[in-house]
Amino acid sequence: MRILLICGSVRGGSVNEAMLRTTTVIAPKGVTTSLFQGLATLPHFNPDDDHHPLPPTVIDLRLHIEQADALLFCTPEYAGGLPGPFKNLLDWTVGGVEISDKPCAWINVSIASTGALPAHDSLRRVLGYAGARIVEEACGRIPLPRHLVGPDGLVHDAAIRGELLTKLTALIEIA
Known about the structure:
InterPro entries: Flavoprotein-like_sf, FMN_Rdtase-like_dom, NAD(P)H-dep_reductase. The protein is of the alpha/beta class. The protein has five helices and six strands; from the N terminus they run E-H-E-H-E-H-E-H-E-E-H.
């Protein structure tokens, strides 16, 4: 089982990325995770460019998605919606078929009272357009205060790890 982890933040030391990096540590035996690293290098989406030959970074993104059995996203909200670079990544997935019917879920780490709900509502809509299969049981809010991210960039809090493992297990069972 291969799960592709996609962080919606390009910020260094992002709590969203810390949550996904922690996923790699707690993943059950037999589950391989990989964190997509090309978010900041994707060209701006232009439908005129969504054909052969694709930009190399887009080929890389689509190959990672194709090779994964499931996708797990973790993204912040920015200005009431998805961060621009992350929305750009998602736009590049709509023209491909790699994400179609692929089990997908997201973890929301926001500690804000609104819980970054607008971003995740938007993510749901975009994944719907791309034909992804949203695994509701694997989606959820696991608030992560920055002070719980260790110097190693991982979350060591047992309760948060337990909630994350519950969501990851739900994704694995569907995929």
